[in-house]
Amino acid sequence: MSQKVVPTHIDTSKASIARVYDAFLNGKDNYEVDREVLRRVQTVAPEAQQLAFDNRGFLIRVTRFIAMETGITQYLDLGSGLPTAENTHQVAQRIQPESRVVYVDDDPVVLAHGRALLEENDQTFLTSADIFNPQEVLNDPIVQQELDFTEPIALFQLGTIHHYDGNDYREIMQAYIDALPSGSYVGVSHFLDPQTEEHSMLARRMEDMFVHSPMGTGLFRTEEEIRSMLPGLELVDPGFSLCANWWPDGPRIKPLTEVSYCIAGAVGRKP
User: Fold this and answer.
1) Annotated Gene Ontology MF terms (predicted)?
2) Which domain holds residue 236?
3) Rounded distance, CA 92 to CA 98, Å?
């Protein structure tokens, strides 16, 4: 596996998006400041961890769909986060062993753990770049070297762009989509304001806790706003959906938690 030299200093006084997500998943690679974010969100949404579990399940099912149904064997996973069970490359390579996965992140902890995890996997790569700067990512030497942009690619922006508070999120996604060849697929998942009397207040309370926590990010956008991140794409059935409802692994035997109504996603194909 190849990677850039990155800073090794880790500031444990500030919460990290990747480590907070790890805390939400009951992982071990987080610090007290990261767990504080979880505790704050749990004051308004005791089942807040379900946001992370729903997102992780969505990633696994989307990767499985891409590997089994589309024939694509190239993945660009933006904001890969800390390694956990069933990462993109593990799901994809189990089905299509020749699959190549490039992870992109700029968190020092992610980069350190990723290097160790991927040391012996010559089909999986990790590089350091700002995922909200498409040109930086697309021009990255590892991205350019390991992915063939003349063949379809699966690009994932899963559980990431809700941590971007600029108004040009549509333009960011447009730049990525423009760079992909025809037949590529794009997956997006995002915190959702369902705009319903029952769940909108919950979404806004969680957003307030995220934004005013040591992490400082976590926006709950509307369906219209999230759909706008997939311009010109043909959405795969069932289209825009709660993450928990996107091709679940089996029949539902218990009702969704309240927070499950506050994270959604979609997968689109570039014609």
Assistant:
1) methyltransferase activity
2) 17-269
3) 9
pTM of the model: 0.94
Our CA angle for 134, 187, 259, nearest 5°, is: 115
Does residue 11 belong to any structural domain of this protein? Answer: no
153 Cβ partners below 8 Å, 6+ apart?
Answer: 72, 74, 75, 76, 147, 180, 181, 184, 185
Strand partners, 74: 100
- pLDDT, tens digit, 9 for 90 and up, residues 37-86: 999 999 999 999 999 999 999 999 999 999 999 999 999 999 989 888 78
Taking the C-alpha atoms of 153, 158, 164 and 169 in order, what is their torsion angle to the nearest 10 degrees?
50
Given a contact cutoff of 8 angstroms between Cβ atoms, the answer to whether 87 and 118 are in contact is: no
Q: pLDDT by residue (tens digit) across 85-140?
A: 789 999 999 999 999 999 999 998 899 888 777 787 899 999 999 999 999 999 99
Phi and psi dihedrals of 235, rounded to 5? Answer: -70, 135
Rounded Cα distance, 196 and 87, in Å? 33
Whether the ω angle into residue 238 lies within 30 degrees of 0, i.e. cis, is: yes
Evaluate whether residue 92 is within a structural domain: yes
The single residue listed with the structure tokens 């029949």 is: 251
The two beta strands, 234-235 and 263-269, are: antiparallel
